[in-house]
Amino acid sequence: MVALFKDRSPAAIIWLFILSFIVHSHFLIEPPAILATENTGLFSVLLNKFASAIHPQITIFLYHAIVLIQALRLNYLFSENQMFSRVNYLTAMVYILLTGVFAAWGNITPALLANSMVIWFFAKAVRLSNNPNPKALILNMGLIIGVSVLLYHPCTILILPGIFALLIVRPFFIAEWIVLLMGVIAPFYFLFSYLYLTNHINRLDQFIPQWQFGLPLVQPSVLFFITLGAVVIILLTGIFNLKRENLRLLIQVRENWIVLQVMLLLMLPLPFISKHSNIDILLLFIVPFSPFIAKGFLAPKKELLPNIMFWCLVVLSLLNSWPELIKF
Hints:
mainly alpha
């Protein structure tokens, strides 16, 4: 099955549609819900306000559309920047598979929408090297971070990868750091001005991220830990394959992979420091996870290991979305 996504072919896109419907086949029985935790940003406000007006069957189309667009956008980003030895659709394939590994991820949530902003942020970060107009790009990157924080508060963590990207990709210029900071602050400045002029300044705290140490609100089970362990093992396989070919990569490509790796590492504490943390917040991880896991599917010359990993993710997705298949 993995071979279907290794070629640059229109047929691969059709297979991505089919894969999305298979992974989320439980929508035939129960359409995706629109769920939003309060006080996590503007996405939660918008979803809670308009959720009741959307027909349940329409949410099926919306969910598949969001996931497929994000998967193809992320895949195109890595192909465009030559992050892989050849053009393929493995990153999109992995992204779709990961959206199904936990049942809670089969809903339309602020975290799912925020992944579009995370992908957009990384699209700017990989263009920092040798850019003819770096200040405009850095300002846009800062604006994306600032807007992302307003839309979904856990996206505050993007500030750290943004800073690190400047450290590793660009020579140090204090003006560029100030431009990045201005971009991050600008959305909050305009929001503060609007609230002040409309005499709603007392609502400002609703738009400020809140943090506290603790464990994410999940209901762990044997299947949960099996799924989490399998995803981590498959991720480590991809990272190992990337390390083996690291010296053969172009310097710019290697820097982009380092930025993505640091982005992944800096996001790890996120579920433990966000005040309204639950399993939905882990959806942000599938953006940096997908390219690394795709490396694990592409590197082996024989198809046995990639196919085992593929069917492992498919089976786990079905077991988590159809809990009546097996009880743990």
